[in-house]
Amino acid sequence: MDNLVEIINTFPQKTVLVVGDVMLDRYTYGSVERISPEAPIPVLRKTSEKYVLGGAGNVAMNIASLGAKVFLCGVVGNDHNSEIVFDILRSKKIDPKGLLVHKKKPTILKHRIVSGNQQMLRVDEEEIGQLDEASEKELVSRVLAALAKSDVVIFSDYAKGVFSKKLAQYILTAAKKHNRKVLADLKPKNKEFFVGVDVISPNLKEGKEITGEESVEKIGKALVDYFGSDVMLTRSGDGISVFEKKGAVHRHIPGKKITVFDVSGAGDTAIAVAALGIASGLELETAAVLANAAGAVVVQKPGTATLSLEELISELKLENHIERVDVVPKVWGYEKWLENNDKYCSKLLSLNKGYQCSLHYHKVKDEMFIVTKGHVRLELGGKVTHLREGGFMRIPPGAQHRFSGMEDSLIIEVSTHHDEADSYRIEESRKIETA
Length: 435
Fold this sequence. Notes:
The protein is α/β, with parallel strands linked by helices. Helices cover 26% and strands 36% of the residues.
């Protein structure tokens, strides 16, 4: 782990070339309080708005947020939206010279209308025809200028018209001459463009579409055979599977049990982190571990998001995650001991619906219960209190108490030092009937 942290801390010394479809994501936030009198549609009262880069732009933003230098090559329109793109790039100290301003193509815009946490509508502005020969030639010249200064290359293909087979293979050949690894996140319709890259990183749905297979193992093998590449197959909450072309080595890296807020751009984050790992000398399997951890961070953020070095390192410190703590089974569920030293104790209690703990008291121990999920019936000193999410109650020494699960519930218990000899049971834990 210490060696891995040392490597992550070298990311700011690396330079990544990102080539692909640059997009602008616009988020309009508001609240819906009424239906329009003109048509049966909700009326959004706008409260705020923000712009972030999507597609290849989001890959570049993720690299920059991790402290590395990035060259971004792609196409934007000669319009107001491209000015916003350039402003965002400059604010993150990303050189915008690799972007070609096209006279006929608009800047790709994805406009999302959001009420609360619910996306109501998305409006796309795009023209996805292939680049004309002159524009393609100009884009190649910008890519080649950045290639010699880069440690690794990422193709970020969203099938919006930047890539042709000729363009992709030309850049790939140039990268090999410079001894640069190339990673590709691609759309199935353009699969033939990227044969021969070093690593491909589709998601599971794309892998199924490309290969026609259903099982993860068969998909991975078929992808290796078709592309002649190593494969990093992202599987959302189930983690990442790695398949290597040499010896057909494969490994499944499990996902974490987390609350997913928004999966937008998670694949961009994964390939950005994997590329930095490979550029830093990591094998693909280890780089995929980093990518998996990074993805777990960004899906807990709203919208298209990035992460910092600090967040990535913290996510890798698995001993500080609740899923790594041993389970202590109980009649009523289980508990996990987060800490128990000579000053205080902290536990996570998982209480099942229809069960209650023992009726008991402590002579010394002073406790605080905080309900973080569900509905708990707490009997305390002859009184009954119903606690739901956010509810808390102090249990002073000497007070007889027990809790019952009206729903499956989670409780954080914080107390003075726990000593089992200080627990005095009057009635044992048991199953009960709930309404």
